From TrEMBL:
This is Chlororespiratory reduction 2. Signal peptide: none annotated. It comes from the Eukaryota. The keyword Repeat applies. InterPro entries: E_motif, PPR_At4g14850-like_plant, PPR_rpt, TPR-like_helical_dom_sf. The keyword DNA damage does not apply. It holds the Pfam family PPR. It comes from Carnegiea gigantea. Keywords: Repeat. PANTHER family: DYW DOMAIN-CONTAINING PROTEIN, PENTATRICOPEPTIDE REPEAT-CONTAINING PROTEIN.
Length: 555
DNA sequence: GTAGGGTTAG
């Protein structure tokens, strides 16, 4: 009787994440000498795990005289909860070694979840294989976890296959699949499935909306958000709000972002860390750095994302020194940087040519914080070295780094060689690229121009042949700005704008002003067989966006 | 004792 009372209350603490109440119950249990009685050790373990007190959860586990499958499953959940999926996976082997226990469907579902959070589909498939051969192969919850894993790893097709095998499809299964479709940009599938979904809750709407935001369908995400507001009674929580703020950020829609900010204030959700982090990022991406800084300053409990958002935002607005001193402040504040922080910092160095500082940060990342540099970090360092003219070092890094450099990486170096007019390295890099069999049209243009500049006409014609056999279409570049509550999009070579004549006039004025001050456009990187006036016209496209920005500031 | 949504880069 007494025991089931404790089990019941401990479970409530686990659900509510109420650590202090849980500890009080634990104290009473010890006083009564019941700490090893019946299901209580497992209940205590579960409570500490779900409250995020990993140390105490593990102590419970270690002190158990006898561990059953539930003890192992709860430990797995605790590790998942604490964001330690690798530890979860190592349990798979330990269960058998220590206690001769085979994973059941509870354990399998948790293992799959660990694979999902690591984004490791290879391991996920192994667990899947184990599952279908186990006596639990028919369990719907484990299948649902597989749907989630395949969705998170970017394989919605596999997720669909498992989904179809679920006998009783609950809201969780539907949501997991819809999320997979939305995140991978399969808008049609996501919407179709969502409309067929029998019971929708706030999480289902949220999964669809945030998935669409992540795959760049901000407008659709917004209209679904409005639909939810209109047609349902679901409230707005910090999850959905931060997704909507991110949508404004990605589309650089400042006015809309401000309105969502007001919504956050009205709902008293602006003090939520996820919401304020999203706001810092939104204002920075919308070029209102002052507003971003003000949100940042007013955020009391700043975490690594808050700091990283302001550092990246500051760096992207050219204030590299300021970004670096924010990093110093962050360390004084005792916040540990993560891999994104370092990307922002190296980016900052890259844009003002702080080569040795950038190198130092790159090394500090692994030495001081144990973060293994990713391909992106190497690319960022490469960018720093090549922009600043350290071409030899950049080439060396490209060859020795622990990742296989792709076409874009080599092309970036080549482009830098041309900017620094280093023909010798340029030709060497170009030859290497040519061997790789380049596929990107802009790489081919770059190659053609490199060889043309070095008067290597045979290779020019070789590149031209490569161009002619492929479907040579380059996505046109475009710029987008918000002007009087409307978004204006301009494509390169676009001449359909109703204000074309006024715009071109202003553009010409700006161009003349630039030339007067000694800024002559460098058109040498444009395709070589264009006439000079055609090159100038192309250049006009490049300043088009700058011109529009200017126009938007006119009264 | 198991499964679904959120912020930072590219």
């Amino acid at each position: 009787m007494l025991c089931s009372h404790f089990v019941h209350h401990l479970r409530a603490c686990a659900k509510l994440s109420s650590q202090s109440l849980g500890q009080k119950l634990h104290a009473q249990i010890i006083k009564l000498g019941l700490q090893q009685y019946g299901p209580l050790p497992n209940s205590l373990l579960e409570m500490y795990g779900k409250c995020g007190v990993m140390g105490d959860a593990l102590q419970m586990f270690d002190e158990m005289p006898q561990r059953d499958i539930v003890s192992w499953a709860s430990t797995l959940t605790a590790y998942n909860h604490a964001g330690l999926p690798r530890r979860s996976l190592s349990i798979f082997a330990e269960m058998w070694e220590h206690d001769r226990l085979q994973p059941d469907h509870f354990v399998i579902a948790s293992l799959v979840k660990a694979c999902a959070s690591l984004g490791d589909v290879r391991l996920g498939k192994q667990v899947h294989a184990y599952f279908v051969r186990s006596p639990f192969y028919d369990d719907d919850v484990a299948k649902s976890s597989l749907v989630d894993m395949y969705s998170k790893c970017g394989f919605p097709h596999h997720a669909r296959t498992v989904f179809n095998l679920i006998r009783v499809k609950g809201t969780v299964s539907w949501t997991a699949l819809i999320s997979g479709y939305a995140q991978t940009g399969r808008k049609g599938d996501a919407l179709e499935l969502f409309s067929r979904m029998p019971v929708k809750n706030l999480l289902s709407w949220s999964a669809l909306i945030s998935g669409l935001v992540q795959s760049g369908h901000g407008i659709d995400a917004f209209s679904i958000f409005m639909k939810m507001r209109k047609e349902t009674d679901h409230g707005i929580d910090p999850f959905i709000l931060s997704a909507i703020i991110a949508a404004c950020a990605n589309m650089a829609m400042l006015e809309l972002g401000k309105q969502v900010h007001c919504l956050a204030l009205a709902l008293c959700l602006d003090s939520n860390l996820f919401v304020s982090n999203a706001l810092v990022d939104m204002y920075a991406k919308c070029s209102d750095l002052l507003a971003a800084k003000s949100i940042f300053t007013n955020t009391r409990e700043r975490d690594v994302v808050t700091w990283t958002s302001i550092i990246v935002g500051t760096a992207q607005h050219g204030q590299a020194k300021e970004a670096l001193s924010l990093y110093d402040e962050m360390m004084l504040d005792g916040v540990k940087p993560n891999e994104v922080t370092f990307l922002g910092l190296i980016y900052a160095c890259s844009h003002v040519g702080l080569v040795s500082k950038g190198r130092h940060l790159f090394n500090s990342m692994s030495k001081d914080y144990g973060i293994r540099p990713s391909l992106e970090h190497y690319t960022s360092l490469l960018d720093l070295l090549s922009r600043s003219g350290h071409l030899g070092e950049a080439e060396e890094l490209l060859k020795t780094m622990p990742y296989e450099p792709d076409e874009a990486a080599w092309a970036a170096l080549l482009s830098a060689c041309r900017q620094h007019k280093n023909t010798k390295v340029a030709v060497r890099v170009a030859d290497h690229l040519l061997c790789l069999g380049p596929k990107d049209p802009s790489t081919l243009i770059l190659l053609s121009n490199t060889y043309a500049a070095a008067s290597m006409w045979e290779r020019v014609s070789k590149v031209r042949k490569l161009m002619s056999v492929m479907d040579f279409r380059k996505e046109p570049g475009c710029s987008c700005i918000e002007l009087a509550k409307e978004s204006q999009v301009f494509y390169a070579g676009d001449s359909s704008h109703p204000m074309k004549d006024q715009l071109l006039g202003l553009l010409k004025e700006l161009d003349e002003e630039m030339r007067k001050r000694g800024y002559v456009p460098d058109t040498s990187y444009v395709l070589h067989d264009l006439e000079q006036h055609e090159k100038d016209l192309l250049f006009m496209d490049i300043v088009w966006a700058a011109c529009m920005l200017h126009a938007s500031k006119l009264p």
